[in-house]
Amino acid sequence: MKLDRLLTRHQRMGRVAARRVLAAGRVRVDGVVVKDRELEVDRFRTVFLDDVMVQGTERARYLMCHKPAGILSATSDPVHRTVLDLIDDPGKEELHLVGRLDRASTGLILLTNDGRWSKQILSAESKVPKVYLVETAEPVTEESIAAFANGFWFPTENAFTLPAQLEILAERTARVTLEEGRYHQIKRMFKRVGNRVVTLHRMRIGGLELPEDLPAGAWRELTEEEKNLITQPPNPGDGSSHPRICPVPCSKYL
Ligand code: URA
Known about the structure:
This protein has 254 residues and is of the alpha+beta class.
């Protein structure tokens, strides 16, 4: 919400009065005097008019969890244990999951009460890479690399998948990088090249790796630095960026 609108809503003042108090330097956002009435203030920012708190009691929460196999990516379920069941925190009911992992999948999953942040991570436009370690039933073929990079037509969604990077690590082990998250996406992509996913583990979201010292089933708050690592574009020098378009046409699997 824009700052002047917040003032008119919460201080029962008209637009002109709101502009006047802003121009007079009487409004502070997170401790800093702000005169820009257009400033976007989400519900986690502290806003004072003189000594009166206009808003500021809500705390943004950012958590990571190491999801074990068998746990549902949901906040509640009548049958299965969910990721939220793993979080022993009094404020957990406000949290939502940033994306999903299938019940059998393991690895990094994020939780927050900040809808803007989760939207930013999940939207394909933001190009936040999600990196998975995959074990397959059959050997991973070189042809699959081109197929993943070219994208697949998913009739259910009436859409092509975005270019994905497939790296062969061993005969039946691969690393897959996606910039989107469609239902069972990696399983469906491997099926299209005649293979089958046996295990799937999310290792990284953006620049944030699942820490080695966070065991399966454990969670913790993100540090400010970790939070920023997620949405930060990959550093081209660190090997984490990947080609967006495969030069080899491979329409066979479309
Ligand atoms: N793709 C899948 O098929 N499953 C997951 O859990 C994540 C990505």
